[in-house]
Design brief:
This protein is an alpha+beta fold. The chain has helices at residues 73-77, 87-90, 103-106, 110-125, 133-142, and strands at 20-25, 36-41.
Length: 143
């Protein structure tokens, strides 16, 4: 444990616990004042200390929100080809502005993402899918 430097007027015991650490700040030596000590509460030395390590403690509220690894929808179905004529299935991979969603958002593997983008572009060319979000919203109203 690091030694803490404290003002003699402050009769505070040095804390051996990891939750309390002291920081000494030197004020100008010309003023003749001794060094001051500031105490920081709740600053643990390890990861997660002072924040409620277990479930139900601290800000977490008991739920574990670590992101789950997404699985490629096409690998699960074992589909050999991505059909550009299946507009309802391809529409899931377009954003509300009719942009192709990235892999990190959809969970599609690299091989199927390349094939998916080709299928989306073919469907757009044949007017099965929109190029812009304006056309996407208009097609939903008419359907």
């Amino acid at each position: 444990m690091a030694e803490t430097f404290e003002h003699p007027a402050e009769a505070v015991e040095s804390a051996p616990a990891a939750a309390e650490t002291s920081v000494a700040v030197a004020t100008g030596s010309s003023s003749g004042r001794p060094e001051r000590t500031f105490r920081r509460e709740g600053r643990g030395e390890g990861r997660g200390e002072g924040r409620g390590e277990g479930r139900g403690e601290g800000r977490g509220g008991g739920r574990d929100f670590r992101s789950r690894r997404k699985v490629c929808a096409f690998c699960v179905d074992k589909s050999r080809v991505i059909d550009y004529k299946d507009a309802s299935r391809l529409r899931r991979f377009l954003s509300d502005r009719a942009k192709i969603e990235p892999r990190r958002k959809t969970g599609v593997c690299a091989k199927h993402q390349r094939r998916l983008s080709t299928a989306l572009k073919r469907a757009r060319f044949l007017a099965l899918l929109p190029y812009t979000g304006v056309h996407l919203r208009n097609s939903e109203r008419s359907a």
